[in-house]
Amino acid sequence: MRVGFVVNPYAGLGGAIGSKGTDEKAVARALSLGYQLIAPRRAVEFLRSLRSREFRIVTAAGLMGEDEVAEAGLTELVEKVVGERKGSTTREDTIASVAEMLRAGVDIIVFVGGDGTLKDVYSVVGTSLPVLGVPSGVKVYSGAFAYTPRDAAGILEAYLRGSGAIVEAEVVDVDEELFRSDKLSLRVYGYVKTVRVEGLLQPSKGLVTSSDDEENKRAIARYLYETMEDGAYYILGPGSTVKAIGEFLRDDLTQLGVDVVLNRRVVLRDTWERPLLEIVGRGAKTYVVVTPIGRQGFIFGRGNQQISPNVLRLVPRENIIVVATLSKIRELDYLRVYTGDEEVDNKLRGYYRVLVDYGQYVVKKAV
Q1: How would you classify residue 210: left for phi > 0, otherwise alpha for psi between -120 and 50, otherwise beta?
Q2: pLDDT of residue 209 exceeding 60
Q3: How far apart are the first and last CA of the chain?
Q4: How confident is the model at residue 187 (pLDDT cuts 50, 70, 90)?
Q5: Which of 18, 202, 206, 257 has the most crowded Cβ, counting Cβ within 10 A?
Q6: In DSSP terms, which residues pair with 82 in a beta bridge?
Q7: Are 286 and 235 in contact (CB under 8 A)?
Q8: Rounded-to-integer distance, Cα 76 and Cα 66, Å
Q9: How many CB atoms are closer than 10 A to CB 353?
Q10: Nearest to 325 by CA among 364, 296, 354, 298
Q11: 180, 261, 276: which is closest to 221 by C-alpha?
């Protein structure tokens, strides 16, 4: 088997700084602020989790795969390196590398990135062969991604053994025009083949909500508002369920960003990691309010990277408030966390009381 392996080295870099994606401006700002690349670390975690050596790798030059394969100690598996080593890369380099991998006769494309990277891979591959995503983006809504890099290794090994079902998965990304207006509207760009292994491959985020959800969200928001403690900060994560509290605060909130409330007033709007660290770092009592991503269950690590492992390390676990509509929570077997920091993830795993209506809770386990 030949495995094509390509890394978008900048994927996910915009998360901690509050960017809704990782374009060139977000990359430049994050690097200028001293942030380190995320995707190469996720790539190495994936590669080191592989136990099989019964395959060969066709990878892209430099940080787009070659360097990560070397760091993981798998250079002896490399059959071919495509493209040129560059100091910085673009989506055109991803597209060109994947095209060369197809010409080299690979059996599957494994890529490290988010929804934007998947769209680039899809533009070349279509449904000609399976693809598998190692999650590292700000947005990871599509159905061709494993839950974690380690899960991606399990899926690839199943494929190499001839097991795992080949299925179609949605290529999902946001409507860019609405996104710029702080409105989340997902669009299906097409379908790819991927490898499904139960419990390891995530579903795509739900595209529609129930008409009953709006009243449910309002009830959750009213209870949350009425039980807010004076003098405590509330870090509000993205999502319409959390941001329904804006009606009671009588202030504007960003649906896709992270806002901070103190004494029922918005004190930070669409903020990022460092202002949050300043709050929790000085010992102020702080609650974090999040809602799981529909159908996937993630409460941390997807779409709210501003609430980073550095922030979560300083917030007591009992101060994490999870809210979800009844229709959303019924779809979920588990809540999920993956911040890329194993110590923090271990802290966040376990059982949560999830607020699902006015004063009503259900218990869900986070894995």
Answers
A1: beta
A2: no
A3: 32
A4: confident
A5: 202
A6: 60
A7: yes
A8: 12
A9: 12
A10: 354
A11: 261
- Pick the range with the lowest mean pLDDT from 153-167, 176-190, 252-266, 289-303: 176-190
Q: Up-side HSE of residue 133: CA atoms within 13 Å toward CB? A: 34
Give the distance, in angstroms, between the CA of residue 297 and the centroid of all CA atoms in the same chain.
Answer: 11
Hey, what are 7's tokens? 């890394």
Check pLDDT > 80 for residue 159: yes
The string of pLDDT tens digits covering residues 87-108 is 999 999 999 999 999 999 999 9
Block residue for tokens 């870090």:
235
Cβ atoms within 10 Å, residue 170: 21
Which of 134, 330, 186, 30 is CA-nearest to residue 121?
134
| pLDDT over 90, % of the chain | 89
The residues, any chain, with a CB within 8 Å of residue 214's CB and separated by 6 or more, are: none
Residue 337 exposed, middle or buried by CB count within 10 Å (0-12, 13-18, 19+): buried
Structure tokens at 304: 């709210």
If one counts every other C-beta atom within 10 angstroms of the C-beta of residue 90, the result is: 13
Task: Report the amino acid identity of residue 52.
Answer: S
Q: List the structure tokens of 6.
A: 């390509």
Assign 3-class secondary structure to the chain.
CEEEEEECCCCCCCCCCCCCCCCHHHHHHHHHCCCCCCHHHHHHHHHHCCCCCCCEEEEECHHHEHHHHHHCCCHHHEEEEECCCCCCCCHHHHHHHHHHHHHCCCCEEEEEECHHHHHHHHHHHCCCCCEEEEECCCCCCCCCEECCHHHHHHHHHHHHCCCCEEEEEEEEEECHHHHCCCCCCEEEEEEEEEEECCCCECCCCCCCCCCCHHHHHHHHHHHHHHCCCCCCEEEECCCHHHHCCHHHHCCCCCCCCCEEEECCEEEECCCCHHHHHHHHHCCCCEEEEECCCCCCCEEECCCCCCCCHHHHCCCCHHHEEEECCHHHHHCCCCEEECCCCHHHHHHHCEEEEEEEECCEEEEEEEC
Pairing mode, strands 265-268 and 259-262 = antiparallel
The one-letter amino acid code at 228 reads M
